[in-house]
Amino acid sequence: MLPNVWTEPFHREIIEELKVEAAKRFRKFQLPESAAEWRKQRPRILEALKKTLNIRRNSTAAPECRMGKEMRFPEYTLTPLCYRSRKDFFVTASLYVSRGRGPFPAVVGMHGHLSDGRLAEKSQGIAIRLVKSGYVVLFVDAFGSGERAPEHGKFEYHGGLVGGNLLNIGESLLGIQVMDNMAAVDLLCSLPFVDPERIGATGSSGGGNQTMYLAAFDKRIKASVPVVSVGSYQSYVGGANCICELIPDGLTICEESALLALAAPNAVMVCNALHDINHTFYVAEAARSCTEAQKVFTALGVPEKLSARAFNGPHSYPADLQGAMIGFFDLYLKGKGHGLPVLPPEAEILVHESVMLYPKGKRDPLVCSIPEYLARRGNELRKKADGKISGLAGILRIEEESIRSADYLSTEKGWEKYTIETTRGRLLPFLFKRGITKKCQIFAAPKGKSELEKLPEFQKACSENVSLLVFDPWGCGECGYIQEIQNIWIEQHQLSRALLWLGRRLMGEWVMDYLCAVAFAKEQLRGCGVFLAGVRDSGVAALFASLLAGKSSVSGVTLFDAPATLLRKSGQIHRPEYSAIECVAPDFFTMALCIPHILEWGDLDHAASLAPCPVEWVRPREMNGVPVAEG
After folding, report:
1. Sequence-ordered list of residues with C-beta below 8 angstroms from that of 518, at least 6 positions apart, any chain
2. Is 532 helix (H, G, I), strand (E, B) or coil?
3. In terms of Cα–Cα distance, which of 442, 431, 413 is closest to 5?
4. Per-residue DSSP letter, 324
5. Handedness of CA 253, 256, 260, 261 (dihedral sign)
6. DSSP code of residue 603
7. What is the pLDDT of residues 300-335, one digit of tens each?
C-alpha cells in the first residue's frame, strides 16, 4: 500500500482559494452609475458573452415550423411542434393559444433541470396558468431534455459530462439554449395572433437562468421573471450548479449583475426562495447582484423596472408565485393593473404521451440529441482539425510554471516523500522510489494513489528495477477536492466548473503537474529516460504533457483505461442502481475532459501523431466509459 506524503491531506483548501479569487472578480466588475459609462461598457460585455457562448444568429426571420395535432380545450388550444433554431437543428416545444381575439401578448417558457422538460407537470402548470390568463405561451424543451433526450421517450438529465462535452466542440449547453430560445421569440413574433411588441419570458432554476440570458441578449423580451436562478457568478465558484449554467471564462468578462443590467430598460422581476438549500441562489446572493444592476436601471431612468421578490418556500416555482408572475406580466405586457399578484387559474395536467409531438421512440431524425449532435459536429471538426503544439498550450491555458522548492520530508517503505511547491504557489505530493536503471516511470490517477494501487501495470512496475514517481494531480487524492454535490455525483464537477468560470482548465492544471514531475525526475536522475503513464483522464494529461515538455524530454506515454477519442457519441451508461432516483449517475471519466474548443484543435489521435515519443493505449475507452472493443 502506497504511503501518504502528508499527515493531513487537503480538503476544501483548494476550492476556498478559488472562491477568494472569485470574490476579487466581483469587486472588479462593479457596474457604473452613469448612463454614459454604461453605454460604453454594454457593447463590450454583450459581445464578449456572445463570443464565449458561441452565440451566432444573423436572422430574426420566422423559423421553419412543423405543427403536430392541435388539442382543443374550453379556454385554449395546445399544439406540439418543432421549429428550426439553426441549420439542421430543430427544437421541440408546445404552443398554448388563448381562445378569443388577438393579438395576444406572449411568453417564452423555459424549464429547469427536469429530464422530461416541457412535458413535466411543473412546465405544463406554468404554461396553462399563463394561457388561461390571456397569454400565448411557447414552452421549449431544453437541449437534451423532454423529446430531445438521447433516447426518445426515456428522459435523461442534460447536464454532467454529456452536456459538458459540448465544450469540446467549441459550444456550450447554455449558448445552445440561448439560440434555441431566441428562435422561439422569432416564431412567436411571426404568428398573426401574437403582438410582437409584447413578449415576456419566465422559468425557474435552469429555466430562470435561460430567462436571464434571453432577456439580456434579445431586446424583444419586454418583461422577464427569472425564478430561483439569480445569485452571483462569484457564488457559482464552489457552488452546486449544472453545466447548463456555465459560461466558460465568465468571470474574466463580468459579474451576473451585468447580465441583469443588459436587460434594461425592459422590466425584470427577480424571485428567490427563502429556504433554498443551494447557497448559490440564496436571497442574499441575489440581492448583491440586484444592488449592482439597480445602478444601471436608475441611470437609465427606469429604477422601477428592476424588482426583487423573496418567497417563503424551497427551491421551486409554486402556484402563488406564478400568480405574482402573471400580475407582473399583466402590468408590463398588457398595461393592466399595478403589478401586484393575482389569483392564478387552476391547471389540469396531461400525461406525457398526450403532449408529445412524436409517438414514443419514433422521433423525427431532424430533432437530434446531445450525443447525436456531438458526433455530427465532432466528425466535421476531426476532418479539418490540424492544430499545432503551440496552439495546445492556449487551449489548455498552460501558464509558465516551474518547481520553486522540492522539500524532502522522510522515507517510508522505500518511498521518498516530497512536498513540491510551484512558482504559482501550488503544492503537490510526490512519492519517489529510486531504481537501478536509467528509466523513470511517472504515474498519476484522478482518484489519487488509491486508484493506482489497483492497476496491474503499476504493481508490475513496482516489482521492477526502474525508478518510480507517483503524484496526486492537483485537486485529487491528498491534493484533493472530490465531493458529491446534492445528486450530481460526477468527479471534479465543482472544481472543473470553478476553474472554467475563472478562465482556467482542470486538464491544463494536470498537464502542468506532469511537466513539474518531468522536471523533478530529470533533476533527480540525470540522463534518465522519462516515461509518462496515466489512468483514465490522467492518461490524457500525460499525452498532452509529452507534447509540451519539449523534444527528447519524454521517452514514452501509456494511457490506461483512457478515452481513445474526446468525441462523445452516446449518452451515459444506464445503471440500474440509479434508475429510481433523479440524479446524474457516476460517469467513468471526470469533468477534466470538458475542454473548450479542444476538438477544433484536434482529437487524441492527432495529439498522438504530434508526440515526440511512442504513445500506447491500454484498454482504450469510449467517452461513456465502454471499452472500445465492445463499443
Report:
1. 442, 530, 532, 545, 549, 553, 554
2. strand
3. 431
4. H
5. negative
6. -
7. 999 999 999 999 999 999 999 999 999 999 999 999
